[in-house]
From TrEMBL:
Its cofactor is Zn(2+). This is Histidinol dehydrogenase. Zn(2+) binds at residues 250, 253, 352, 412. One of its GO terms (biological process) is L-histidine biosynthetic process.
Length: 437
């Protein structure tokens, strides 16, 4: 049996909020299509109270940001980027181009070609989320993307120094101090001052995620990566303080971030609710975390591991932290999640900031159909074919000709037939094949 010891108070209001975000984003994109840079300036002024002649940072502004961050922090950023780069390089090595002879004389292949130009959005409305620069820019570089541009909103009225340092160290070619929908749309559509890209990647708030969704098709996107979600799966092998810490650690992202405890221990569930209340009295970011906990937090108690598994797969959370006696039981069976954090020694913050797996991950159930950002997202797997011999061309041509005519495609059939005639196979007359349709 599945029991809810705490439900999400605000779940019912989210459809209306989604509609409002959709229409705001539509209006903003429309204005950038119509008025380009002029609209971008107005929007930055309106949403971020920030304007400048050119949103692109100069070499000297970048150098100033790097200098201001200080050596110790730069070393930490370099360490995190090294971990992200290293894992991405291992993942890249797992993607091989192939070329195989599938029938005598028939050669099929695929190649992985990097997207030419990518825009990496780095969020920075509430916190200067510099880690997103590692996740997008470093990974795009490993993939071999030629032009990598990146944008982040201003923080406290000026470029966020640590974000700029991370964008620069990650190897970005152009850095813009621009946030939200205006940044995503300007990079995607291009303006007089920003050259457009082929793909937009990176996480962001609901507006940023919706902008990517609406622009998809005009450009490529990595995946829907909106407000953070976390699911803690725990049994009585861990204590309530650990569970509460891991729930609130992610609830602090924003007031709409769901944090859910799923457990087969009712005592742990009750103790975790109490521990959350206690932590909310001391956590410096409690104002945000308390709202997301009240509105979107849930505590779910199951009887069996199977119930926990089914519930977790139905939630399809972005982050899933498994702290049970045998976390690998879930690794082997779970199908819907952005990233798994196995055992009490690791946690979502490790993945968010430093351990090397990518933190840009699917939200709002998108884990049912995609994983997170990774080097493969920047690659287009494209195919090619060649036929080595006359015999092979005539042989496959005969099949092709007949199959075309089953569909009534006389012109397609003739593409095959001309080769069958030239390379010595049997030409199927139109009337004979058409009668088989
Ligand atoms: N899914 C993931 O992989 C992942 C990873 C990290 C962070 N995140 C999420 O990224 C988000 C970051 O959000 P943030 O707000 O701090 O920064 P953000 O950079 O995503 O958004 C800030 C921008 O939003 C725009 N904006 C704000 N209010 C608006 C409004 N009413 N109308 C139109 N535009 C508006 C502004 O232009 C501003 O520049 C968080 O929700 C966090 O959970 C997700
Ligand atoms: Zn996080």
């Amino acid at each position: 049996m599945i029991r809810y010891l705490k439900t999400a108070a605000a779940a019912a209001t989210t459809a209306e909020a989604d509609r409002q975000v959709r229409s705001t984003v539509e209006t903003i994109i429309e204005s950038i299509i119509k008025r380009g840079d002029d609209a971008v300036h107005e929007l930055s002024q309106r949403f971020d109270n920030y304007d400048r002649t050119d949103f692109r940072l100069s070499e000297s502004e970048i150098a100033d940001c790097v200098a201001a961050v200080g050596e110790e922090a730069l070393d930490d950023i370099r360490f995190a980027q090294t971990q992200v780069r290293n894992f991405a390089q291992h993942q890249r090595a797992a993607l091989t181009d192939i070329e195989v002879e599938t029938l005598p004389g028939i050669v099929l292949g695929h190649k992985n070609i990097p997207v030419n130009a990518v825009g990496c959005y780095v969020p920075g409305g509430k916190y200067p989320l510099l880690a997103s620069a590692h996740m997008s820019v470093v990974t795009a570089r490993v993939a071999g993307v030629k032009r990598i541009i990146t944008a982040a909103p201003p923080f406290e009225g000026r470029p966020a120094q640590a974000i700029v340092a991370a964008q620069h160290l990650a190897g970005a070619d152009e850095i813009y101090c621009l946030g939200g929908v205006q940044a995503v749309a300007a990079m995607a559509l291009g303006t007089a001052s920003i050259g457009k890209v082929d793909m937009i990647v990176g996480p962001g708030n609901a507006y940023v995620a919706e902008a990517k969704r609406q622009l998809f098709g005009t450009i490529g996107i990595d995946l829907p990566a909106g407000p953070t979600e976390t699911l803690v799966i725990a049994d009585d092998s861990v204590d309530a303080e650990l569970c509460a810490t891991d729930l609130l650690g992610q609830a602090e992202h924003g007031p709409t971030s769901p944090a859910i405890l799923l457990t087969n221990s009712e005592p742990l569930a009750r103790a975790t609710i109490a521990a959350v209340e206690h932590l909310l009295t001391i956590l410096p970011t409690a104002a945000i975390a308390a709202r997301s906990w009240a509105d979107f937090g849930q505590v779910i108690v199951c009887d069996t591991l199977e119930e926990m598994l089914a519930t977790a797969d139905a939630i399809a959370s972005e982050h899933v932290q498994v702290m049970t006696a045998d976390p690998d039981w879930f690794l082997e069976r779970m199908t819907n999640y952005g990233a798994l954090f196995l055992g009490p020694r690791t946690n979502v913050a490790f993945g968010d900031k430093v351990i090397g797996t990518n933190h840009t991950l699917p939200t709002k159930g998108a884990a049912r159909f995609t994983g997170g950002l990774w080097v493969g997202k920047f690659l287009k797997t494209v195919t090619y074919q060649r036929v080595l011999t006359n015999e092979a061309s005539a042989m496959i041509g005969e099949y092709c000709s007949r199959l075309c005519l089953l569909e009534g495609f006389a012109g397609h059939a003739e593409q095959a037939n001309i080769r069958v005639r030239r390379y010595g196979g049997r030409n199927v007359p139109y009337a004979e094949a058409a009668s088989r349709r």
